[in-house]
Design goal:
This protein is an alpha/beta fold and 304 residues long. The protein folds into two domains: 57 residues, no CATH class; 244 residues, TIM Barrel (Alpha-Beta Barrel). Helix content is 51%, strand content 13%. The chain is built from twelve helices and eight strands. An eight-stranded parallel β-barrel has the order 1-2-3-4-5-6-7-8, surrounded by seven helices. α4 packs parallel to α5. It is globular, with a radius of gyration of 18 Å. The protein starts with a helix and ends with a helix.
Amino acid sequence: MEMLLRNMFQTLGKSRSANKLAKKYGLRFGASRFVAGETIKQSIEAVRGLNREGRVVTLDHLGEFVSTEAEARESAQMCLLTLDAIAEAGVLSNLSLKMTSLGLDISKELCMSNMRQILDRARQYGNFVRIDMEDYAHCQISLDIYRELRQEYDNVGIVIQAYLYRTEQDIRDLGELKANLRLVKGAYKESPKVAFPEKSDVDENYKKIIRMHLLGGHYTAVASHDAKIIEYTKNLVREQGIPLDQFEFQMLYGICEELQQSLVREGYKVRVYVPYGVDWFGYFMRRLAERPANVWFVLKNIFK
């Protein structure tokens, strides 16, 4: 049953008609638990609240179904406005983005043009931009672009997914760039030809790459809600004498609130991934696919 629900939500998340219907009804049905709002103003208010509680943030303007150059330029403009709003408000947040929303599927040149504009603006403000990793089909091109950008910018990082077989070698290669990485397990549905099908294997590879990157002396964002992974990281940094300013824990907005606050009290840096925007439906469906137990929360909101 759980697998059936997961597949259903993944399919819905890719549906243009479902996305259009969701826009009509706004952030009701519980989506506001995971999405900070539809506007920059709403997202900045969410950041302020998290900052007051000792947490820093990465903001992500959600974008789905970018298929034209105009849409890609519009998405890039929203990233620029987000950076402007962060600077104006003086909140502690950097920016996360998906390169498909900036035109990666249209042309590499368009995507690079948009990325350079965004990184120039972020550098102007002394801010940082994280490139989200997408599905396996976009993995190599994303890493190629990241390598190219790192020749010009030191304020850009990328995400690496533990469930891919290739990841250990990617970690070794990126170590040469002193890359600032967010390490995740991986949430896309991938073929066993390219990804570990068993959770236990993914967990072991995740621990391996956390250890590799931290012991290499590189900044590491451990993005997980898994208490065992978090405890592993805490033990590793304590045993190896890794300074607290070399890593951070990252979690999603609206998930594991008590754990986030507990880590802050213990003195760890916690960054919350805060998405916003009108194209929230695909993101919301992916959160439900990851944990179908969240469906009960949604149903309670529908019948309120």
